[in-house]
Each structure stands twice: as structure tokens, then as C-alpha cells.
Write a structure and sequence with these properties.
It is a single chain. Helix content is about 40%, strand content about 15%. By secondary structure, it is an alpha/beta fold. It folds into 2 domains: about 5-30 and about 300-410, Aspartate Aminotransferase, domain 1, CATH 3.90.1150.10; about 45-300, Type I PLP-dependent aspartate aminotransferase-like (Major domain) (Aspartate Aminotransferase, domain 2), CATH 3.40.640. The strands form 5 sheets. The protein has a 7-stranded mixed sheet, with helices on both faces. α8 links the parallel β8 and β9. It is globular, with a radius of gyration of 22 Å. The structure holds 4'-deoxy-4'-aminopyridoxal-5'-phosphate. 4'-deoxy-4'-aminopyridoxal-5'-phosphate (PMP) binds next to α4.
């Protein structure tokens, strides 16, 4: 099998200044990439360049700087469009992140397209960001939140999900890749089934767009949400992709500048897509830097990233499974670079704290997926999540660290 060679990974690592840092005198090993990824120098430079040379409020200025900032911001929209293979940049709405993107759809969709007794269908493996926005609307409009179950191995069961579709189902919202289990969901199949009933589908792509090619036209999703900061881009920026016909059908989410066509005290009319959903000054520095991050990913090649991360994931899984008493949660046939485990009787918090002292950053706890934890019958896990800059040597250090901690507790 062709692999991305180690020297390339070393070169990639050199792009990320934070990775050369030491914590507690130990080289930093960063395995918390599902929470947020580190930033390559080109993204850091882009932020600095924007503030140093191209800072002015967008869209409303006739002056040079405002035009330049607007050009950067709108070029970023094009970059996102290309990255997702969306039909038009009018389908790309900039938000603050996955959470805001989902809240936007939940609020605007349920307000206009749902009636009391209607149902929203999600799955048992959703992040709180794809649960609570729907619950808020369900409470307000008397809707029901239905939940498709998962198997003991942490896989969605498409037949069971399809059984949950009723004449009252108005929307299905599902994560592409679980941030806890790494399960990759068969989104095309789910979308196909939903569309047979004319039901739109929202894909939470927070854990997928940085790992695998995602083509919104190929999977035919109606909405898709992701966060810049999990894809090597800056914090505070995200994207909502929506098919034009759906975005057109939804009312604005927030009111303010930018989202209007004209305002009077008697009646306000709204701007065209995508601006109708972008109230207030957008984070044009963030969007420009997000575009830089997406270009960085594209230059490395998502296929290469996917292939390398899968190999590293398999290596890490194999090594972890050799440790007696260590149990990995979720063994889906298709998994991405997230590994959640329990280490015997050692509390995840203790494991995380002791690994931290060795310079190894992992995440512990419920990972914003409390219902999934309940489903799995655990309070929390230790989560190792990989990115393109992680190496086999780092995995070996992790294994070494866990073995030492096992020794301490023996
Ligand atoms: N969905 C999933 C699957 C996630 O992993 C996360 C982040 N952990 C979110 C949604 C929320 O993303 P953000 O906090 O960037 O809005």
C-alpha cells in the first residue's frame, strides 16, 4: 500500500509551530485533535497579514481596503464552495461554527416548516450540538425528538433508522463521524432513504471534512455544518452549507446589518442568499484564514491525509488492544481517527491527568455526548484523536505512558 512517507510528515510537522513546544519539559504529543486541531504557520500568517494589510469592514465600503477585505471574504466563500463541491457560493453561509450552523437550521426550519406533533429524527451518537438545538425547538413548538438507535459496536443500524421515519418526520440530523466512537455513518444511504420520503437531511460534518473528501452534491445532503477550528483553521468561524431551495425557504436566523435589503419601521425586507443568514459584521479575517487552511489541506491532498490517518489509526488501535484490561469503545467496520477507551478500573480523569504529565494531551470525559455515554453504560472515556501531524513514534509514547500508568495502579 502506498503511504505518505515519514519525511513528509516531518515536513508537515514543521508547518505547525506549536508542535515543537515542550510541556512539563517533555515534547508535546497532541492527541486532542477532535476537540480542535493545531494551526499551520500559513494560517497564523494569514491572520496577521489580514490585520496588517487588509483590515476594513466588508461589503459596505467604497474605499480600497474595504474592497480588498470583501474580495478576501468572498474568495473564501468560493474556496469553501469548491472544497465541498457545492453548486453555488450562495449555498455557503458563514457562521461561528458547527454549533451555530445547527442552531440556525433548527431555529429557522422548525419556526416555519414544523407543526405541533411533527418529528425531528436524530441518532443516539450525536454531539450535544446536534441534540440540544433540536430540543429547544421541540419544547417551543411541541415537536417530538426521535432517536435512531445504535448497535453495541457503535454503529447506526440503517434499517432501524428508516423504521423511525414516519409521516410526521420533518428533518433528519445525523453526524457524519462520531466524535466519541469514530464511527463513520453511511450518510449517502440515510439521505437516499430520507429523500424517498421528501425529508431533508442535515449532516454534522464537524469530524469529517478534515479527514475525508466530502462532496455535498455526491451525498446529496440538504444541509451540512462544520467548524473551521477542527480543520486547521482559526476559531470562531464555521460553515453552513444549505441547498438553495432550503435556504430560500427558511426565514433569517438573526436580525441586524448585512442581512437586510431595506429597513423601515413598518417593514423590513431581507437580503439575498447567503447574506440573509449573515447578520452583523462577519469574521472576515477568520474566513480568509479558513480558506488558507482548506487550501493547505487540499495541497496535502485529502486522499493522502485519509490514507495516512487510517494507517496510523490501525497502528494505534492494534497497539492499544495489546494492553491487558484496555477496552476500546466502538468497533464499527468503518471508523475514522478517533479512539475512545477505558483503561481497566482507572478513571479516565486520572489517566488523562497522568498522561498530561508525560506531555501527552488526550481528552477525557463525556465528550459532549452524555446520551451516548448512557447508551454505552459508561460515565466517560479517554479519547485519542489523530491528525495528519501525528506519528507512530507518538503512538508508541502513548502506549508506553499507559503501561507506566497501569504499573502505578497495580
Ligand atoms: N459536532 C461534533 C460531531 C463535534 O465533534 C463537535 C465539536 N466537538 C461539534 C459538533 C461542535 O463543534 P463547535 O464546538 O466547533 O461548534
Amino acid at each position: 500500500m502506498k503511504t505518505v512517507q515519514e519525511p513528509d510528515i516531518q515536513k508537515i510537522r514543521n508547518d505547525f509551530p506549536i508542535l515543537s513546544q515542550k510541556v512539563y519539559g517533555k515534547p508535546l504529543i497532541y492527541f486532542d485533535n477532535a476537540a480542535t486541531t493545531q494551526k499551520p504557520q500559513c494560517v497564523i500568517d494569514k491572520i496577521s497579514e489580514m490585520y496588517s494589510t487588509t483590515n476594513a469592514n466588508v461589503h459596505r465600503g467604497v474605499h480600497y481596503l474595504s474592497q480588498a477585505a470583501t474580495d478576501e471574504h468572498e474568495a473564501a466563500r468560493q474556496t469553501v464552495r469548491e472544497y465541498l463541491n457545492a453548486t453555488s457560493s450562495d449555498e455557503i453561509v458563514f457562521t461561528r461554527g458547527t454549533t451555530e450552523s445547527i442552531n440556525l437550521v433548527a431555529t429557522s426550519f422548525c419556526r416555519t416548516l414544523c407543526r405541533e406533533g411533527d418529528e425531528i429524527l436524530i441518532t443516539a451518537m450525536e454531539h450535544h450540538s446536534n441534540i440540544v438545538p433540536w430540543q429547544l425547538q421541540c419544547e417551543h413548538y411541541g415537536l417530538k425528538l426521535e432517536v435512531a438507535p445504535i448497535s453495541a459496536g457503535g454503529e447506526l443500524i440503517p434499517e432501524e433508522l428508516e423504521k423511525k421515519i414516519t409521516p410526521r418526520t420533518r428533518l433528519i440530523a445525523v453526524t457524519h463521524i462520531s466524535n466519541v466512537l469514530g464511527t463513520v455513518n453511511p450518510v449517502s444511504r440515510i439521505i437516499e432513504a430520507a429523500h424517498r420520503h421528501d425529508i431533508p437531511v442535515l449532516i454534522d460534518a464537524a469530524q469529517s471534512i478534515q479527514h475525508r473528501p466530502v462532496d455535498v452534491r455526491a451525498i446529496d445532503c440538504d444541509f451540512l455544518a462544520f467548524s473551521s477550528h477542527k480543520a486547521y483553521g482559526p476559531t470562531g468561524v464555521g460553515v453552513l452549507y444549505g441547498k438553495e431551495k432550503w435556504l430560500d425557504a427558511l426565514p433569517p436566523y438573526q436580525g441586524g446589518g448585512e442581512m437586510i435589503a431595506s429597513v423601515s419601521f413598518r417593514k423590513t425586507t431581507y437580503n439575498r442568499l447567503p447574506y440573509k443568514f449573515e447578520a452583523g459584521t462577519p469574521d472576515y479575517v477568520g474566513t480568509a484564514a479558513l480558506a488558507t487552511a482548506l487550501r493547505y489541506i487540499t495541497t496535502l491532498g485529502l486522499e493522502n491525509i485519509d490514507r495516512y490517518e487510517r494507517e496510523l489509526y490501525r497502528y494505534a488501535t492494534g497497539k492499544l488492544l495489546t494492553l491487558p484490561g484496555l477496552r476500546i469503545l466502538g468497533n464499527a467496520a468503518d471508523k475514522s481517527s478517533v479512539i475512545s477507551f477505558q483503561a481497566g478500573n482507572i478513571h479516565p480523569y486520572d489517566m488523562g491527568t497522568l498522561l498530561d504529565r508525560m506531555g501527552i494531551a488526550v481528552r477525557t470525559g463525556h465528550h459532549c455526548a452524555e446520551p451516548l455515554m448512557r447508551e454505552l453504560g459508561v460515565e466517560g472515556t479517554v479519547r485519542v484523536s489523530l491528525a495528519i501531524y501525528n506519528t507512530r513514534e507518538e503512538v508508541d509514547q502513548l502506549i508506553n505512558g499507559i503501561q507506566q500508568i497501569f504499573g502505578m495502579f497495580r
